[in-house]
């Protein structure tokens, strides 16, 4: 394992302070009529290569992905009112990302990417006070969420910056919309560990997973946005945009 990590690190040697183009980064050209197809395959190649992390620029393993804390706060008159946090979070699934489409605006360089995950599972420790659908919830303990067949549309806001003679993507925000084909979940120690209430609540939420998923959409979208923004910023802060697009214009 150590030998493999060292080989990967050494293969990304620096040229004038910038990482040399890795083998898994394919260069596309805006003037090419097949640019979108090329860009889609290029992004897929990137996501195929990095699930174990990239020590050259501090990218932690993506599968499983460790997240110290996720803060969830949603209020208002909707079906969900939640004040919660997840800690010691493990996310499984990002390492098998399918890139269905990726376009780059030729002027702004914003990305539009369509992705598919067969499965995304989140495990962690939670603290929760709130309401989902008609159920008031209160608890503190372990939990997991297991979603399948997730279709994601992500728009990335990008500016170009120049450094060391190269262009770099500066990803400032990501906006995610998604739909899922199934959801199972479990929250332990609900209602101070009253087993009958805990079991019946989890059973109700699972039996009504579709409205639950719709209700949790803003929360899950924000979670995915935060994770993807962290991943993309670490990659694009270190890999020049010129490696991805060979005819970037100043």
Helix content: 25-40%
Please compute the radius of gyration using only Cα atoms. Answer: 20 Å
General shape: elongated
Mean pLDDT: 86
Beta-strand proportion: 35-45%
Look at the helices and sheets and give the structural class.
alpha+beta
Unreliable stretches: 1-13
Distance between the termini: 42 Å
Oligomer: single chain
Query: Given the structure, what is the number of helices?
Result: 4
- Strand-and-helix sequence, N→C? HEEHEEEEEEEHH
- What's the number of extended β-strand segments? 9
**How does the major sheet shape up?**
7 strands, antiparallel
Structure description:
- The protein has 250 residues and is of the alpha+beta class.
- It is 26% helix and 42% strand.
- Strands 3, 4, 5, 6, 7, 8 and 9 form a seven-stranded antiparallel β-sheet that branches.
- 23% of the residues are buried.
- Residues 1-13 have low confidence and may be disordered.
Throw out a few tags for this protein.
single chain; 250 residues; alpha+beta; seven-stranded antiparallel sheet; two-stranded antiparallel ribbon; 4 helices; 9 strands; disordered N terminus
What is the compact description of this entry?
With 250 residues, the chain is α+β, with helices and mostly antiparallel strands. Helix content is 26%, strand content 42%. Strands 3, 4, 5, 6, 7, 8 and 9 form a seven-stranded antiparallel β-sheet that branches. Strands 1-2 form a two-stranded antiparallel sheet.
What's the arrangement of secondary structure elements?
Elements: H1 2-11, E1 14-15, E2 18-19, H2 35-49, E3 65-74, E4 80-92, E5 98-104, E6 111-132, E7 135-163, E8 166-179, E9 182-187, H3 195-207, H4 209-236
Antiparallel strand pairs: 1-2, 3-4, 4-6, 5-6, 6-7, 7-8, 7-9
